[in-house]
Design goal:
Family: Belongs to the CLU family.
Largest sheet: 6 strands, mixed
Protein name: Clustered mitochondria protein homolog
Radius of gyration: 34 Å
Helix content: 40-55%
Subcellular location: Cytoplasm; Cytoplasmic granule
Pfam families: CLU (PF13236), CLU_N (PF15044), eIF3_p135 (PF12807), TPR_12 (PF13424)
Shape: globular
GO molecular function: mRNA binding
Number of helices: 40
Length: 1245
């Protein structure tokens, strides 16, 4: 961190609560990485004007606003929201950086005065909302780690007993966690802290019915009225005025806004309530103490809201309705904010950090605060339906509010009629979002995209976009100066756009091409025709409608007269799809080009070698020495450096190789795609026929590459366990990383089905089928919900879930009371969804009908056949209904009540309408990247892989600082950083530091990804290992049991990762001498390892050895020998007699044999001589903690090689020598900072 500015802070307004000196260590968050929390903070009271807080700002890059945030998070100042900081009497700008403030030095006194300027309605609302948040203990995203660790693992939690805790450990896990248990309870997902007692500070705090204040009271400064009921049952009415809050004389039935006597005028609601309610004062202080004792990562807000799919009815997420920060008439110009941040300078690291941080903040505010509030969606879906009688209306595309344009994913104007109607209109927004993401990542100066968020809510897809200045005042035809508004019938171009888009064409692999317009004139484009260029009133060049940024996927686009390659045809392609917007993913394009580049290099090298062999002419060689092959991933961007040398033979070689791989240039490797090929309505000039033919072939090759290379490589990665999906989300991620669209899921599953090693892919197959079924169910649920009235929503959702999951054969829906329905029907509703007919049609759905629909959806969309009932599916594929419930809930945004459900009862349905708590919007948005931090992180990883742990550690620490700078304290990438740091700390022997970093990683993963996300499960496992190494055995066990429970919920027991988890649990139990329990887990691990790695795998050998050790501890030498022999055989066959592992196993076998013989001798002696036998004592060894830890390290992939100092020096010298050899070919040695510069240069042909 930068040098600290020691700044004291004075906060005005009656500090009468703070009469004693506050404990300077009350904020246990001094080590927070976010830089938004203060270090050691001392509080000294100064008369009645305020009190001083000594703040050590971690760096001068911090803004004044962040000091605000720190004070609003502290126990003693958290109830103040409306204040500003001043230095020597001058008010400081909230967005000023500390370093830019004149006269601010170490020891300066900042003052936070009671606001001299008055409260406004907005400030008053923010204050009330903040107080409500303080009174609610639950965070906006859940975390349960502290329940399993008894508070903080660091210094500020309860002190842990070090050393041997064997006396007080209860090792028995709950019944449902034991291997072989079929019970999958839901309630333990959100465990309750037994010691936590709910503290009630206030019974009611609501807006009063007397709002808004009448005109004459506004003249007295009244902003709004509140109603409160204290714990002592005192009913009070409070006025929020410009001067603060005071009691008035109103009651429930009479309005008398005059101040009561005494009125207790206070600047904060907390101060007012502390004076009128002793119970509030006592409980609020206690509540804040509890809040502050939590780990900072349990309290800091997350950048994006994470909703839980199950919750309790007591603490639903309170919608902030009525407390919005932005009152109508106070809208922000989101587009201006977003584009201004993009225009910030980015020449050096500090500038780039500031810019990326600003972009991230604006995007997360739009996504987090503006969009998921329910009110806009409810009204939007109502309004858009009301505005549109669905056909022929000029405003049919949507409506704007709060400076955001909303549109629904329906083909309202027959815009997509030729492309697939509503199906195309539903797919277009996500394609568009992918385009925005791609252009945003290239980040060309002067080219602007719109802030875009796609939201699925209640069966509707809504796109929210920032608005181009001036676009709503003119017709689209007048605005578009580049591209086409009618899918290619009329096309225009613009030189400035061509210049800007040319810069994106190499990284996005888009070919510059000509198309014909309506007058048969040739028009040049550097994007698809749908991509529109509009210059806003602000003079900026915007591009929008990026739905065809990437080329079409011919496997799902049958075209008359075009034949696909044999690889595609063998798999049954081309197949008919719902719409004609099926595109290849960007990851596939990258992989395809990389594949072609390697092919190009091989061909060129081969031809040159042939020439050399023919003529032995040395002059031709330079052609190949000029080619850069960078690192593991081929740098296709600089591939064009292989240009033609001056040797004619070499020129021919390059020309042949270019032709063979489909390069658009004949002199260098350069593959780009024309996204308009096969677009209906787009025509090309006659003179480009050859080029178009070439492009068509390239598209066919790319489609074949997906089927013949990418899908097999995914399956191979799953076979050798380098890809380990645990649930639907991680499976989807694995597909998308390889550029495989989800519509290929059926093809992938068929491929797995035909694989010889299908048994070892059973987990993958099961997760794939579950994903396929829940996605089909989601498609049906979407249209099902569109016909449901709002009042019947929970009944409809519970009925759908009953039909989907319950074994009860005739699920009957609960309709709303009759009189409501009839009264509604009597009113003619204008906003009826087309095709919905009767609004109670949803109630007639039956389980058999739903499963028939799912099976036909699977057949038509994924071309895959499944059974037509939930019980058959569960039986055949070994599913758990809880897993299916989790998957469908997460995909559709349903939140259900956390309780046990009986899915298998044939007498009553599993769900009632009371069990459905909420439906959340499912939001898709662009995640802005912290590019510099990411480069540091990658460089750090590379260093670690080369064995330079200390240097790697420094780079990763630097990456962590930069991530914090851009994202704030909470983010997925920071989580990955902390995990790696913890592992490095552990390997380098700093166990307490490893524990501290891993604890943060777990908390962050729970809150940013979700409490049962596969990533969180793995973080729990790592934390358990570090706890064990720190001697906290009972905590380690509790964490492992939690991980096993989550794993059972998410993917069941039959999964390769479960073997690792069970081996960990078994080893720890062995360490605490719970041998029988230990065996249950280790034998389960052995069975799973044998199934998924094959009986001859080294993992299985290790499992046998672990089981043998436990049997040895139990003195059951025969069983121990049996297992160790199995292990020995595997080691001997795989590694040979001379290998160290084989020798170790052989020694252990000898030892076991001796022990077995000694035991037998003793037993014989006892049988022979009875009680007079002279028994030689047998050696029973309880396992040492060191040996258990050694085995734990081995199974978790951490292997320490004991080296002397001399060995270490030799190793380092060897690694450096190899590095120098690698770098000889390069012009100069790159420094650690170098990758940043390399990445910043975009090579130009």
């Amino acid at each position: 961190m930068n040098h600290s500015a020691d700044t004291a802070m004075v906060n005005g307004d009656g500090a009468h609560e703070h009469t004693e000196e506050a404990d300077s260590k009350q904020d246990g968050n001094s080590e927070t990485d976010g830089g938004e929390e203060s270090n050691e903070q001392e509080v000294i009271v100064i008369q009645d004007t305020g009190f001083t807080v000594k703040i050590q700002a971690p760096g001068t890059e911090e803004m004044v606003q962040e000091i605000h945030q720190v004070l609003m998070d502290r126990e003693d100042t958290c109830h103040r929201t409306c204040f500003h900081c001043s230095l020597d009497g001058n008010v400081l700008d909230n967005f000023a950086e500390l370093k830019s403030i004149e006269g601010l030095q170490e020891g300066s006194l900042l003052k936070g005065w009671k606001v001299r300027e008055p409260y406004t309605v907005r400030e008053a609302r923010i204050h009330v909302r903040h107080i409500r948040d303080l009174l609610k203990m639950d965070c906006n995203s859940l975390s349960f780690l502290s329940i399993f660790t008894d508070g903080d693992l660091g210094d500020s939690g309860k002190r842990k007993k070090k050393g041997n805790e064997l006396e007080q450990i209860d090792c028995t896990p709950p019944e449902h966690i034991l291997p072989g248990s079929k019970d999958r309870p839901l309630v333990p997902l959100q465990p309750q802290n037994k010691e936590w007692k709910p503290m009630q500070c206030l019974k009611v705090l609501t807006m009063s019915g007397w709002n808004p204040p009448p005109g004459n009271r506004k003249m007295h400064g009244d902003l709004m009225y509140l109603c409160m009921v204290t714990v002592e049952e005192r009913h009070v009415s409070v006025t929020a005025s410009t001067r603060g809050f005071y009691l008035n004389q109103s009651t429930t039935y009479t309005f008398n806004p005059k101040p009561a006597n005494p009125s207790f005028l206070s600047h904060s609601l907390v101060e007012l309530l502390s004076q009128i309610s002793p119970a509030f004062k006592k409980n609020f202080t206690a509540l804040q103490k509890t809040r502050v004792q939590k780990h900072p990562f349990e309290r800091i807000a997350t950048p994006f809201q994470v909703y839980s799919w199950d919750g309790s009815a007591k603490t639903p997420y309170t919608s902030r309705l009525g407390y919005e920060e932005h009152i109508p008439g106070q809208t922000r110009d989101w587009n201006e904010e977003l584009q201004t941040t993009r225009e910030l300078p980015r020449k050096n690291l500090p500038e780039r950090l500031l810019r990326e941080r600003a972009i991230f903040k604006v995007l997360s505010i739009v996504t987090l605060q503006q969009l998921p509030l329910e009110a806009p969606w409810q009204s939007l879906i109502g309004n858009v339906m009301a505005i549109n009688p669905w056909r022929g209306n000029a405003h049919a595309d949507g409506l704007s509010g709060n400076n955001i344009f909303f549109s629904l994913g329906f083909d309202v104007r027959d815009h997509y009629r030729e492309l697939g109607g509503d199906a195309a209109a539903h797919a277009a927004p996500t394609n568009d979002l992918n385009g925005v993401r791609a252009y945003g990542a290239v980040d060309v100066e002067g080219l602007y995209t719109l802030g875009t968020v796609v939201v699925d809510y209640r069966g509707y897809r809504v796109t929210a976009q920032s608005i181009i200045p001036g676009i709503l005042e003119r017709e689209q035809e007048q605005s578009v100066i580049y591209g086409s508004i009618d899918f290619g019938k009329t096309v225009v171009s613009h030189s400035k756009y061509l210049e800007l888009l040319e810069k994106t064409s190499r990284p996005l692999k888009v070919q510059r091409h000509n198309v014909l317009n309506e007058k048969n004139e040739s028009v040049e484009l550097c994007s698809s025709v749908e991509c529109k260029g509009i210059i806003g009133n602000d003079g900026r060049h915007y591009i929008l409608d990026l739905l065809r940024t990437f080329p079409p996927d011919l496997n799902f686009l049958p075209v008359d007269g075009e034949e696909l390659s044999p690889e595609s045809q063998r798999q049954g392609f081309p197949r008919q799809h719902r719409h004609r917007l099926a595109c290849l993913r960007q990851e596939l394009i990258e992989a395809f080009v990389e594949h072609r580049y390697l092919l190009f290099m091989k061909m060129a090298a081969l031809q040159l070698m042939q020439q050399k062999a023919n003529k032995d002419a040395k002059a031709d060689i330079p052609a190949i020495t000029e080619t850069p092959v960078v690192g593991k991933r081929v740098d296709t961007q600089s591939a064009h450096l292989l240009t033609v040398p001056a040797y004619p033979k070499s020129r021919e070689v390059v020309l042949n190789a270019c032709k063979a791989v489909g390069s658009i240039s004949n002199t260098s490797f350069d593959i780009r795609f024309n996204p308009d090929i096969f677009s209906p309505g787009v025509r090309f000039p006659d003179d480009s026929k050859d080029e178009i033919q070439k492009q068509k072939q390239l598209l066919k090759d790319a489609a074949a590459f997906l089927v013949s290379c990418q899908i097999p490589s995914l399956v191979k990665d799953c076979l050798d366990h380098s890809a380990l999906p645990m649930d639907g989300a991680t499976l989807t991620e694995a597909l998308r990383q390889r550029g495989i669209n989800i519509r290929y899921l059926g093809t992938v599953l068929e491929f797995v089905d035909k694989t010889p090693a299908k048994a070892q892919l059973e987990h993958f197959y099961r997760i794939g089928i579950s994903e396929l079924i829940t996605r089909c169910a989601k498609h049906i649920f979407k249209t099902y919900l569109q016909g449901v009235e709002l009042s019947a929503l929970s009944a409809a959702v519970s009925h759908f879930l009953n039909c989907l999951l319950s074994s009860f054969p005739d699920a009957v829906a609960h309709l709303p009371p009759d009189e409501l329905v009839s009264r509604r029907k009597s009113r003619k509703r204008r906003n009826r969804v087309p095709g919905s007919g009767d609004n109670t049609a949803w109630a007639s759905l039956t389980p058999s009908e739903l499963w028939k629909n799912i099976a036909s959806e699977a057949k038509s969309y994924y071309h895959f056949t499944i059974h037509e009932s939930v019980d058959q599916v569960v039986e055949k594929y070994g599913f758990q209904k809880t897993t299916l419930l989790r998957e469908i809930s997460v995909k559709t945004g349903i939140q259900i009540l956390l309780k046990e459900y009986n899915f298998d009862s044939r007498h009553k349905p599993a769900f009632t309408e009371e069990d459905i708590l909420n439906i959340f919007p499912v939001v898709k948005h662009v995640n802005p990247k912290a590019s510099d931090a990411f480069h540091f992180f990658q460089s750090g990883q590379a260093k670690v892989q080369q064995g330079f742990l200390k240097e790697g550690c420094e780079l990763i620490n630097e990456a962590l600082n930069l991530f914090n700078n851009v994202y704030g304290a909470m983010h997925v990438e920071i989580c990955a950083c902390l995990r790696l740091l913890a592992r490095l700390n552990y390997i380098m022997g700093d166990h307490p530091e490893a524990l501290s970093n891993q604890q943060k990683a777990v908390l962050m993963s729970e809150r940013v990804l979700g409490i049962e996300h596969p990533n969180t499960i793995q973080e729990y496992m790592h934390l358990a290992l570090y706890c064990f190494a720190n001697g906290q055995l009972s905590t380690a066990l509790r964490l492992l049991y939690r991980a096993r429970y989550l794993m059972l919920m998410v993917s069941g027991e039959d999964h390769p990762e479960m073997a690792l988890l069970d081996s960990n649990i078994g080893l720890v139990l062995h360490g605490v001498m719970e041998y029988d329990l230990s065996l249950r887990f280790l034998e389960k691990a052995l069975a799973i390892n044998t199934k998924y790695h094959g009986p001859r795998s080294l993992k299985v050998a290790l499992s046998h050895h672990l089981v043998a050790r436990v049997y040895e501890s139990k003195a059951e030498f025969r069983s121990a020998l049996q297992h160790e022999k199995e292990g020995y055989t595997i080691y001997k066959n795989q590694m040979g007699e001379a290998h160290e592992k084989t020798k170790e196993s052989s020694e252990f076998l000898k030892y076991l044999t001796q022990q077995a013989v000694a035991l037998q001798r003793t037993m014989n002696e006892i049988y022979k001589n009875g009680s007079n036998a002279s028994i030689t004592p047998l050696k029973f060894t309880a396992p040492s903690m060191a040996s258990v830890l050694e085995q734990l390290n081995i199974i978790n992939g951490i292997i320490f090689i004991p080296l002397s100092q001399k060995d270490l020096e030799n190793l380092k010298a060897e690694v450096q020598r190899r590095q120098q050899l690698q770098e000889l070919g390069k012009s100069e040695e790159p420094t650690e900072e170098r990758p940043l510069e390399l990445e910043d240069r975009i090579p130009i042909d």
